[in-house]
Every structure is written in structure tokens, then in C-alpha cells.
Amino acid sequence: MTVLVDEARWPWRGRRWAHLVSDDSYDELHEAARRIGKRRLGFQGDHYDVDEIDRHRALMNGAEAVGSRSLVRRLRASGLRRSNAKPEWVRLAEWADGATTETMMAHLAGQGSAGRRLGGALSMLDGGFSSVGVALFADSVHLVGLIEIPSQVPRPTVARLLDHSAFVVGRVDRVVVGEPRASGDRSIELFVAK
User: What is this structure's pTM?
Assistant: First the structure.
């Protein structure tokens, strides 16, 4: 069971990027990515893109540094290579700091039963949206509520959101609570099957 990361050499948006993969399972990969604060929405079908800072954090969490060719070779040998399998997420809506639960519920009502389920889960978070951002994404399979918690949000608010996120397990199909990123920001993702 190994999480692998190649060198950060691909330039994009002023940074250099690497790939984080597992040669054992996607579950292992998702857990490694979550530990460094990557969103599940960032999954590229068989890998996560990581910048130099996240690459270093992955190495500190036990990832093995390998060359790019070795990474691809090991990914193929494991049977986990999926070319062109990247989910195509579409951002449906976004609410900035201070969004009200009622505003979100009105939009989610137009998303059918998945929207109602996601709306019910968001309402269980007890309106803690005064200092966070919320976005709604969809692909062909899922509707996802992404709650972005900036590093400057007071600890009691973060603790309340994290505590309440445990209450929505079972009401949605998957809850992913990310560890803080290098910036201190973190996210909660609520996945509902369409």
C-alpha cells in the first residue's frame, strides 16, 4: 500500500504541480488527499494534482517520491490508471459570506430530490454560514455542497460546523471533512446521488 507523488514540474497559474496517486486503492488515495486538505471535488479520475506545498505535506505524511514515469508505470500495473476519467463538475451556484439558509434552500428546491436531501443536510448545519462560503456543484452522478471555511473563522464556529457535519451522515451519501490546507482553510463536502 503506497501513496506516490512525482516531482512538481508542471507549471500552471504561477505554481508548479505534481500528481498524487495510490498504487493500492482509490480509498487510500482519497484519505491521503484529505489529510493534506485536498477536496474530493479535485479528484482527477485516478490522481490529485498537488502544488509544491501539498507535495511536501504529502511526503511528510508518508507518500513516496517517485519520478513521473515510475508513477505512471506503477499506476498502470496496479490497474488503477483511468485515462480521461476526470469527473466534469459544473458550478451551479455560489453563496458568499453571510448567505442565508433560506436563499440556498430556494435554489436547491430546483434540483429535485437530490437538492431537497442536500438542502436538508445543509439546514442541519444550523445556519453557520455567516463567515463561510458555500458552493453547489454537479456532475452526471452527484450533487455536491461545498462549504469553504477560511482560516480566519473563529474556532468555535469551525468546531460547531464540524460537529454538526457528523449529524448529516446518513442524510447524504458521503461527507468529506478535509484537514486544514497549508493556508489553514478547510472544507466540508456533502455528496448526494442524483
Answer: 0.90
- Extract the C-alpha cell encoding 109: 428546491
Given a contact cutoff of 8 angstroms between Cβ atoms, the answer to whether 162 and 128 are in contact is no
Residue 145: which residues within 8 A CB-CB, separation 6 or more? 118, 121, 122, 134, 135, 136, 189, 190, 192
Burial degree of 91 (CB within 10 A; 0-12, 13-18, 19+): exposed
Which residue type sits at 70? S
Q: What is the largest CA-CA distance in the chain?
A: 50
Q: What digits encode the pLDDT tens for the residues 30-47?
A: 999 999 999 999 999 999
Residue whose C-alpha cell is 494534482: 49
The candidate with the shortest Cα–Cα distance to 3, out of 19, 27, 20, is: 20
Judge whether 191 and 176 are in contact, CB under 8 Å.
Answer: yes
Q: Which three cell numbers stand for residue 182?
A: 497549508
